[in-house]
Amino acid sequence: xxxxxxxxxxxxxxxxxxxxxxxxxxxxxxxxxxxxxxxxxxxxxxxxxxxxxxxxxxxxxxxxxxxxxxxxxxxxxxxxxxxxxxxxxxxxxxxxxxxxxxxxxxxxxxxxxxxxxxxxxxxxxxxxxxxxxxxxxxxxxxxxxxxxxxxxxxxxxxxxxxxxxxxxxxxxxxxxxxxxxxxxxxxxxxxxxxxxxxxxxxxxxxxxxxxxxxxxxxxxxxxxxxxxxxxxxxxxxxxxxxxxxxxxxxxxxxxxxxxxxxxxx
Length: 265
Description:
Layout: E1 6-10, H1 18-26, E2 31-35, H2 43-52, H3 56-59, E3 62-66, H4 71-83, E4 92-95, H5 100-119, E5 127-131, H6 136-147, E6 151-156, H7 160-174, E7 178-182, H8 186-193, H9 197-200, H10 226-231, H11 238-241, H12 245-259
Parallel strand pairs: 1-2, 1-3, 3-4, 5-6, 6-7
């Protein structure tokens, strides 16, 4: 096979996620090559081995995927890979630890589409409260919403200190503004949501994903009707929806548009 489409998957974890491998083949790569236990210091050399072994046409058919579970480490690896490029020997690079970036991109894009549909506006000036906001997906949701002009509160059930630490780390690295808030008790959570009028007087509905706060980040947004955001996904389908091929491909395509390398495939 001449000039096959190749994807090299670099992961700092003990195993490369089967989810990432499956999604790469769903995207029709001819070969997916996993590397586990990769350290940040090894990324530069691995990247140059990847680019210098292919022709100028071949590098257009080559990609690097940064996996793992750690949001900050994935971005450090992404930057190291980009710094190793020597144009025209350069390939596209995508980081998506724990599926955080693709999932967050889809969530924010959906919320923004509802804002446009229902009020003709976007995230600018809105208040966004991210429940489960200190995990990889929640942190990325907060980052994207802040970049879209929203006032973002990352909420942690482990207390205000944990939430503020996460918010400061994201704000410092990506030059945006976020706040931390306590969601460790029903009273604390009610206090945060009281600043979002559409949510302040409506109790959670049994059987909805919002009842499982530790499993899936929820995105209350000022100006949006509460029903679609709160009950868009039954709790029984939280896990199964993540493995639906069509939806997963849409998440990957959305994130690729956001973070792909300027050298392009």
